Amino acid sequence: MHTISHVFHQIYARFLPEPNMESLFWLSLTLAVFAVGVRLQIRLGRAPWANPVLFAIGFVALALVATETPYAKYFESVKIINFLLGPATVALAIPLADSIRLVTRSLPAMTLALLAGSVTSVVSGILIVMLLGGSHEVALSMAPKAVTTPIAIAITTQIGGIPALTAAFAILGGIIAAMIGEATLRRMGITDWRAHGLAAGIAGSGIAAAQVAQRDPVGAAFAALGIGLNGLVTALIVPLILYFIAG
Amino acid sequence: MPEAFLTLILFQLLGSALQMVLHLPVPGPVIGMFLLAAALLWKRKRTQPADRAVSSFDSPALSSLSRALIACLGLLFVPAGVGLVTQLPVLAANALPIAAALFGSTVLGLMVTAFVMHKATHDGPAPERIPDTGGQVL
């Protein structure tokens, strides 16, 4: 195994001496693997469990190990993809504005669902970790994991969790929500895209929202609201809940 | 198209600036999203749909750019997601509680949110648009 990765590393070091080349290489690889992941998902009848984000993360991680590339170097190379998250988040304003009538009409229902969902996510995350004997830091890092990553990191820093761990939980939770969310809710007899979108935004933030946004514009609007409002609510309730749980 | 991209970037900048100045707990892009939605609604209230394409930032280009960005939203999470590999030792050390909590808490959060939303929504459901459109619904 070690010799194989050494050979890969040699090839990699020989052919990619320029920093620019390196960036181009990792950009191409990331785009290509994600594109393959999307095709695979379509080939599998658009199965949500065949999540292209998970596929791409797994493949790129293996490629990093194979070429002995540190993560920091990879991130530096594909920074531009990460940068586009900002404008893409702002772009969620368009489906939101387009379905504003539906949004204002279901405002009371949304407020209730938002509060119930936020509290459930935070409390169940902390309790399950503590019941199964996970460490204190893990429980604290789990608390804000349903929130969009930047907010989650801010909250976790404030309450004494580990930021990198919270970021990992936020992404894994989002992938889980994207993979099984729609099937679970349909089994409960819920077909309304407003409920699907809001639930995805609140329980799985960006990655789950991406899955819903592919399916329905109304879902995208409610997912966008879910992400934004859940961030706000969770930032306010996490310290409160910790006060009651931990005493 | 350049104007459309400029619109998104400017609203992100505005959101980030507000966040910095007012010390808001919400990230800049999310504030930018709410501001842009508000600006679009305000603009639409004042102009006829027919004039929309001509003058304002509320253009078809903005719609198609946002559609393109949202269609590949998942891709944008890959660089940060690969950062998982740096956390593997901690994840492995607490594998069972982490797996159970991630799975249980995420499913519970989904179910409770959707259930309350479902029960509290009294008008008929929004029309479903399930038919396959090649992942480009939006």
What does this 3D model show about the protein?
The complex is a heterodimer of chains A (247) and B (138). Chain A is mainly alpha-helical and 247 residues long. Chain A folds into two domains: 2-83, no CATH class; 91-246, no CATH class. Chain A contains 14 helices and no strands. Chain B is built from seven helices and no strands. In chain B, 67% of the residues lie in helices and 0% in strands. Chain B has 138 residues and is mainly alpha-helical. Chain B has helices at 2-22, 28-46, 52-55, 60-71, 78-82, 88-93, 95-120. Chain B is extended. The interface between A and B is large, with 118 and 85 residues.
Characterize this entry briefly.
The complex is a heterodimer of chains A (247) and B (138). By secondary structure, chain A is mainly alpha-helical.
Query: Helical content of chain A, roughly?
Result: over 70%
As a percent range, the share of strand residues of chain B is under 5%
Give the structural class of chain B.
mainly alpha
- Outline of chain A, from the CA principal axes? globular
Sheet of most strands of chain A: none
- Proportion in helices of chain B: 55-70%
Give me the secondary-structure topology:
The complex is a heterodimer of chains A (247) and B (138).
Chain A: H1 2-15, H2 19-43, H3 52-66, H4 71-77, H5 79-83, H6 85-91, H7 93-98, H8 100-105, H9 107-131, H10 136-142, H11 149-159, H12 163-187, H13 193-215, H14 217-246
Chain B: H1 2-22, H2 28-46, H3 52-55, H4 60-71, H5 78-82, H6 88-93, H7 95-120
Helix pairs in contact in B: 1-2, 1-4
Key words describing this protein structure:
heterodimer, A: about 250 residues, mainly alpha, 2 domains, globular, B: about 140 residues, disordered C terminus, membrane (chain B), CidA/LrgA family protein (chain B), LrgA/CidA (chain B)
